[in-house]
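TA notes, week 10

Several of you asked for a full example with nothing omitted. So below is the full record: structure tokens for the whole chain, then the designed sequence directly under it. When grading your own attempts, check the secondary structure regions first.
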């Protein structure tokens, strides 16, 4: 059992604290993705698990053992980096088997293991080549194989696919997930790419400037983002935000332009008078005739997305995008209405950015309402 327990972990560089007391419980066999923009502390957290950075405060335990004072090689982790760090003068087989050689494993046993692992990542026919004679994806597979052969309890990945072109990235992503499913070791994967995170993760950890904003399955994080930061980071195209004030008497959020977005009475009562950010996903909206729908907007410009069109609008001076397979190109400035199907509207507190929810299902559907004039 290789669960990982991270308790109130801090990291200080000089006078700067860059990880501010992080708590996280990773289950045995789980594929965890740590997601966040550059500089938010992902690598630092991963390197503290691996033992490549000291832990300034708190505790990390792997499989029940506190590892704060253990050397990297005593922790049972294998790390796969962005730059593959292969030995250029050694063959693929030599690279894969190097750790076993150092550990004194006999030649015959080593060769058999190298061959088996090379086969498992589709490298068998390249075993005698040097890294310089391989493509980027093949080199990445060598790096994976080199980690797998050590039979680690935990795989740690630090943006391992960032150097690859788009198509290969997707292929390798699938391969990493396949290998994980086959081997079943606990995996912690760091990336700034939300697509990579969404598609790979059992659970995602969304980091924001050295703290964790949310931990959840990709669906949970997409459907119920805990903060405006998470809401804006997860989902593509990005979520729209509008400001308004909750009015219990009207069971609605009042926007500055006089329009009303309906809330359930429960949500409206719970947050009466509150200044809120309303989060609307572009894919949850649709265009309609001017004067109809909950929102009044003007057409700004159109963006072709292949299967869908992204319609950029302005609600007063706030941009709002509508993603729809029903593609409509309109002249700039043309008036248009926006309807929202009966789905959950995301409500956030303006000050704290925290999600507002008045019990299950209480944050209501947006309904067509008459505009208050
Ligand atoms: N060795 C270091 N010395 C000082 N500051 C560092 C060091 N490594 C990282 N940092 C700082 O810590 C913060 C988090 O960095 P990092 O963990 O690399 O972020 P990420 O991997 O999310 O891009 C950044 O502000 C970075 O500048
Ligand atoms: Mg990093």
């Amino acid at each position: 059992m290789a669960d990982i327990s991270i308790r109130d972990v801090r990291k200080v560089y000089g006078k700067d604290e860059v990880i501010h007391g992080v708590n996280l419980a990773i289950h045995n066999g789980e594929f965890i993705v740590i997601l966040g923009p550059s500089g938010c502390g992902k690598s630092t957290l991963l390197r503290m698990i691996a033992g490549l950075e000291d832990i300034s405060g708190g505790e990390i335990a792997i499989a029940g053992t506190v590892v704060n004072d253990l050397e990297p090689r005593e922790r049972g982790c294998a790390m796969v980096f962005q730059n593959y760090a292969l030995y250029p003068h050694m063959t693929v087989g030599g690279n894969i088997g190097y750790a076993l050689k150092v550990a004194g494993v006999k030649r015959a046993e080593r060769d058999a293991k190298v061959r088996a692992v090379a086969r498992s990542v589709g490298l068998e026919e390249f075993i005698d080549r040097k890294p310089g004679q391989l493509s980027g994806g093949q080199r990445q597979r060598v790096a994976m194989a080199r980690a797998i052969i050590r039979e680690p309890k935990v795989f740690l990945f630090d943006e391992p696919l960032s150097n690859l072109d788009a198509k290969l990235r997707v292929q390798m992503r699938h391969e990493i997930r396949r290998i994980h499913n086959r081997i079943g070791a606990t995996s912690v994967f760091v990336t700034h790419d939300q697509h990579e995170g969404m598609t790979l993760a059992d659970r995602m950890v969304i980091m924001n400037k050295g703290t964790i904003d949310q931990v959840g399955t990709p669906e949970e994080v997409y459907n119920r983002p805990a903060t405006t930061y998470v809401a804006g980071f997860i989902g593509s195209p990005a979520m729209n935000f509008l400001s308004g004030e909750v009015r219990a008497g009207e069971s609605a959020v009042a926007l500055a332009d006089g329009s009303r977005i309906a809330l359930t009475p429960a949500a409206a009562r719970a947050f009466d008078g509150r200044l809120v950010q309303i989060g609307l996903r572009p894919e949850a909206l649709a265009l309609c005739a001017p004067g109809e729908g909950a929102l009044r907007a003007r057409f700004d410009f159109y963006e072709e997305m292949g299967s869908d069109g992204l319609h950029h609008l302005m609600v007063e001076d706030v941009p709002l995008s509508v993603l729809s397979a029903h593609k409509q190109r309109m002249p700039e400035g043309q008036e248009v209405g926006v309807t929202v199907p009966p789905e959950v509207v995301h409500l956030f507190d303006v000050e704290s950015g925290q999600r507002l929810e008045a019990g299950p299902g209480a944050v209501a559907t947006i309904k067509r309402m008459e505009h208050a004039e």
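The two ends are 63 Å apart (CA to CA). Use that as a sanity check on your answer.
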